[in-house]
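Q: What residues go here?
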């Protein structure tokens, strides 16, 4: 009976936690750009690959963080983009594809997508921020914990990046930034 009660309590805790977990509302880049026309917001694009360990950690540890999910959903259109995938993506009156994509390598390293090349993605994961006109603001490469992503989310959302001209300017911003998200 004791084991049954422990299992029941554990199951209820897991179900309650899952029910309260907030997730990011991911859309395609084309959909995000259409949404921008109705309600202007910046775009946050997660450029990932299927084989990338840090990309999976970003999904599990950062994008599922309730503070991150709530802030992104409220202030950005969130886009997931496989940097080695086979989707055709329309961006700025041009279609981008992956003509060298190899279907037999669908779960392994593959050819870089033309859009990833256009965005100058050099590492995975990379989070690319776009302004309200879908123009690229900046790519931020690497795995970020919630508080590190918060720094960029708020910097770009509040247009603080426009005041940053040098590494020293960024260092000053970084030093004075007070994270509010929980890791």
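A:
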């Amino acid at each position: 009976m004791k084991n049954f009660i422990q299992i029941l309590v554990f199951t209820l805790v897991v179900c309650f936690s899952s029910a309260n977990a907030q997730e990011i509302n991911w859309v395609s880049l084309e959909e995000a750009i259409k949404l921008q026309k109705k309600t202007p917001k910046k775009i946050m694009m997660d450029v990932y690959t299927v084989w990338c360990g840090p990309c999976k950690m970003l999904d599990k540890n950062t994008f599922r963080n309730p503070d991150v999910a709530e802030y992104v959903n409220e202030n950005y259109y969130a886009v997931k983009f496989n940097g080695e995938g086979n989707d055709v993506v329309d961006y700025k009156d041009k279609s981008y594809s992956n003509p060298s994509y190899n279907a037999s390598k669908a779960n392994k390293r593959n050819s870089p997508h033309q859009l990833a090349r256009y965005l100058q993605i050099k590492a995975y994961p990379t989070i690319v921020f776009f302004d309200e006109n879908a123009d690229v603001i900046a790519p931020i490469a690497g795995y970020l914990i919630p508080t590190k992503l918060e720094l960029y989310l708020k910097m770009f959302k509040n247009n603080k990046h426009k005041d940053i001209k040098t590494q020293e300017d960024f260092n000053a911003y970084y030093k004075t930034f007070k994270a509010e998200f929980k890791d």
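A: Context that may help when evaluating the design: The first strand starts at residue 26 and ends at 27. Confidence is low (pLDDT under 50) at residues 4-20.
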